[in-house]
Amino acid sequence: MRTLIAYLLLAAVAGCIAVAAPAVGGTPQVSAGLRVGPLMGRTDDTDKVSGRAEVFARYRLQKSLEAEVGAGYGRLSGSSFATDLATVGGGLVYLAPQLGSWQPLAHAGLTGVRHDVDEFPAWRSSNSESIAWSAAVPVGLGARLLVSPTLAVEATGTYTYTLRDDFDGRTDIKGNDWLFSAGISLVFGRFQAPPARPPAAPVAAPEPQPESQPQLGPVQPVAPPVEGAPADRDEDGLTDREETRQYFTNPLMADSDMDELGDADEGRAHGTDPYRADTDGDGAGDGAEVTAGRDPLVADVPEPELEPPLEPVVWPAEPSTSQVVSFATGGASLSPAARSALGQVLDYLLANPQVQLSVRGYSDSVGGWNANLRLAGRRSEAVRDFLVAGGVEAWRLTVEALGEADPVGDNSTRMGRRANRRVELVPMP
After folding, report:
1. DSSP code string of 287-309
2. In this structure, are 151 and 54 located in the same domain?
3. Which residues lie closer than 8 Å to 50 by C-beta, 6 or more apart?
4. Of 24, 50, 179, 301, which sits 20 to 30 A from 337 (CA to CA)?
5. Is 225 part of a structural domain of the chain?
6. Are residues 345 and 422 in the same domain?
7. CA dist., res. 95 & res. 103, Å (int)
8. Is residue 303 domain-resident?
9. HSE (CB half, 13 Å, CA atoms) of 84?
10. Residue at 101 is within a domain
């Protein structure tokens, strides 16, 4: 009982962390939960049904693939033995396309199993071990039901092949032991809303009646019902029930991700993610793409970016003037134009050995914040390595990685993002 309570506490803590964890690029990343259910073995004895519990955490690798780690405890029993099983391991979970609020899944992994035989049979084998570690391979199928934006329930069945034959204290009959388990899981996280339903087909207007047909009387206007109508507190065209049960949007905000495209348009008309301002990740918001007549679900292919011609400038013109080197999208390699510009800097540093430089690396806003910070650092290091290879002392160059900070261009435009992918070389006083 105390073991189950401990698992419940661990699952509650992990669930709170998963729900509070921020989404990266609008996509939920972390989830955690508790799984309980029956356990039965296939050993050399007559096996009975017992139970097990497990806590786990998952990280989204792709839209349909998650990595899982977990730890669990179970009680394996038979007609003449009882064994405690502790497990720790990890694996992958494949999520099939959603069917409304349901989503099929499959999982497989590798687990370490520690068995502790608590009750031995009278005919215990001499070569069996009472306590030992072994490996096991679990595989299984199941389904997920989305209950709310932060809670899902999963039902799974798992077959586990182990690399031992003495879970029951015997090694003389059937070969390696197997485990069969079923489980009901409570999963806490931030989940994607189910796909939007297609819009209903328009109802054809009734055909006009011939003018010769007598009128039955004046047509009285019918006022729309007010009392008992479904609540729509943000007046976005979706009822509060639709927002919380079907689309998983905020019933108090008409535009949950503030991309200038209302929740009703995102869910019913365009199928975009109402919690992600840029569903296709091409740098332009969903509202801006719809206004421009583009598909917000298809990323625009960027036009090839050409390096501007270099002007012959003697650097630096003034002590406070900085030299700027540009980089391609996602790259940290020096282009021929960048090497030519750095050649002027190198000549100046060799001619002025007292000058020190601050080498500051930046990036645009495409991608995650941490990844952009690392990319900016690699760009700064590439510039420093070029100058050091040319004969400049390393102590004269201070490398800084600033990532998305201090943009000089608009990250919503191609030219603005290009201007932000840079390294600035600033003379230090």
Report:
1. HHHHHTT--TTSPPPPPPPPPPP
2. yes
3. 38, 39, 40, 74, 75, 76, 77
4. 301
5. no
6. yes
7. 7
8. no
9. 6
10. yes
Element (H, E) at 381: helix 369-389
Residue 30 carries which side chain, given as an amino acid letter? V
Is the CB of residue 105 less than 8 Å from the CB of residue 93? yes
Q: Are 314 and 343 in contact (CB under 8 A)?
A: no
C-beta separation of 69 from 109 below 8 A: no
Domain match, 255 and 329 both:
no
Q: Are 31 and 70 in contact (CB under 8 A)?
A: no
Same domain, 278 and 138: no
What the block records as the tokens of 198 is 């297609």
Number of domains in the chain: 3
Please give the single-letter amino acid code of residue 426.
V
Q: What is the pTM of this model?
A: 0.45
Question: pLDDT of the chain along its 429 residues, tens only?
Answer: 555 455 555 555 555 554 445 444 444 578 899 999 999 888 877 888 999 999 999 998 887 899 999 999 999 888 888 899 999 999 999 989 878 788 899 999 999 999 888 887 766 777 778 898 999 999 999 999 988 878 889 999 999 999 888 888 777 776 788 898 999 999 998 776 555 455 445 555 555 555 444 444 444 443 444 455 578 887 777 888 887 777 777 787 888 777 778 888 887 778 787 777 877 776 777 878 788 778 877 776 655 555 454 444 455 555 445 788 888 888 888 888 889 888 888 888 898 888 899 999 999 988 888 888 999 999 999 999 999 999 999 999 999 999 999 899 998 888 889 899 999 998 887
CATH number at residue 414: 3.30.1330.60
- How are beta strands 47-62 and 65-78 bridged, if at all? antiparallel
Say if residues 53 and 74 touch (Cβ distance below 8 Å). Answer: yes
Q: Could you give the strand order of the β-sheet that contains 356-362, starting from the edge strand earlier in sequence?
A: 323-326, 422-428, 356-362, 397-403
